[in-house]
Design brief:
By secondary structure, the chain is of the alpha/beta class. It is about 60% helix and about 15% strand. It has a domain of about 140 residues: Glutaredoxin (3-Layer(aba) Sandwich), CATH 3.40.30.10. It is built from seven helices and five strands, in the order ααβαβαβαββαα. β4 and β5 form a beta hairpin. This is Thioredoxin domain-containing protein.
């Protein structure tokens, strides 16, 4: 046999063995790496199971559910008392309405006054949002006794009641820049400042919803102005 051919064959065999060994080493390394990556996932699953069985977490969850249920029940009670909507009342209803809730906003209006219509629309937009406060309106012409008792001289006049006591009022649009095109948010902020509606931290969705309502109110007011 040709010596050179023998050397070539042996060399090829040695190279083949090296490649095979390298392939085996690579396979072992990949298997080891896969096991290492799988281990944390298994560990995470165990931790998650332990977390789900955590009695403290279950207690917090139960307390949250109970609080939400209590809040829903409270809202239902308030709605039965006339909260959550902007309603017209009569002079005969007045005392019962303003003493029957902790916080009440009463708009004394005249049905022919344009500014009273503007105030109506903003209060109507706020009433469903602030269920903790009752929003009502009373025709001043049909309530002469309380107009005199409350010394109402200018309309619109929005009187704020806490526990049946008149604590503050908005006369005309004096607190709103004396302009007709104020936003619902402007009125909302004043009512918050006066403590007659609850302070709320709005998220982005609520901001968009409120701004949408402002646009609808201003648009509707403009249409009324054109039709008058």
């Amino acid at each position: 046999m040709d010596p050179d051919a023998v050397k070539s064959t042996l060399s090829n065999l040695a190279f083949g063995n090296v490649i095979a060994a390298a392939a085996r080493d690579l396979q072992k390394e990949m298997v080891t790496k896969d096991k290492a990556q799988a281990a944390p996932a298994s560990h995470d699953e165990v931790d998650l199971d332990e977390l789900l069985d955590d009695p403290e977490l279950e207690k917090l969850h139960a307390e949250r559910i109970a609080a939400l249920k209590k809040e829903a029940e409270k809202r239902e009670v308030l709605k039965r008392q006339g909260h959550g909507e902007y309603r017209e009342i009569t002079e005969g209803d007045f005392l019962g309405e303003v003493t029957g809730s902790e916080k009440v906003i009463c708009h004394f209006y005249h049905h022919e006054f344009y500014r009273c219509k503007i105030m109506d629309k903003h209060l109507r937009a706020l009433a469903p949002i602030y269920v903790g406060t009752k929003f009502v309106k009373l025709d001043a012409e049909n309530a002469p006794f309380f107009v005199a008792k409350l010394a109402i001289k200018t309309l619109p006049c929005v009187i704020l009641f806490k526990k049946g006591i008149a604590v503050d009022r908005l006369v005309g649009f004096q607190d709103l820049g004396s302009k007709d095109d104020f936003s619902t948010r402007a009125l909302e902020n004043i009512l918050k400042m006066k403590g007659i509606i609850d302070e709320k931290k709005d998220d982005d969705d609520n901001d968009e919803e409120s701004e949408s309502k402002n646009r609808r109110v201003r648009s509707s007011t403009a249409q009324d102005s054109d039709s008058d």
